[in-house]
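Human: I would love a firmer grasp of how sequence relates to backbone shape in proteins. Take your time, and here it is.
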Amino acid sequence: MHLIFDFDGTLIDSFDSAIHTLNHLADEFSFRKIAQDEISQLKELSSHEFVKFLNIPFYKIPTILLKARKRMQDEIITLSPFAHIPETLQKLHDKKIVMGILTSNSVKNVTAWLKINNMQNLFHFIHSESNYFGKSHLLEKIIRQYKIDKSQAFYIGDETRDIEAAKQSGLYSLAVTWGFNIEKVLARHAPHHIARKPEDLLNIFTGRGQKTSTAEKDNK
């Protein structure tokens, strides 16, 4: 079995930092700043709706992501993993489940963060590449590079675009509710599984979990 994890919002609690970074870049790239009273509303938006809400033209997204990554470079090591993530991942690793990371962050940043949080030996690979609405192509590249059996592979993320990417690339999708999007928004996109707390990953991947009522295997 292979588990491919999104990084920001799935393993690392970077939501507040990301909002602060976007607001810092808003003037430079002429998009909308996020007001404090709008933050909870954002979690109910799909990835496409979020970009539309900020009035960001699609062609600017790669440059904005690159700038944001550079700005967060020094800050990332101060951010915490979500509660119970390190011990849950350790238990999955102990069960010989192969894990990797797909991230728009740099390998250097992610590696430094994993070391600080004693998780540096848990992942088989860290794939660093950015394509905001083209994650399925990145997943397919990972599948080819690491010779992964799609029928035994899951992509785990916290946004609607993660669910879409998993399905488009023929992987099982698992949505976590502790990141960007709230559960009702994630469920609307019919992931194969939903995890409400990190410990749910153990139940799902040791054969005790159940598929969500909103999705079946034939959604792949």
Notes: The longest helix spans residues 15-29.
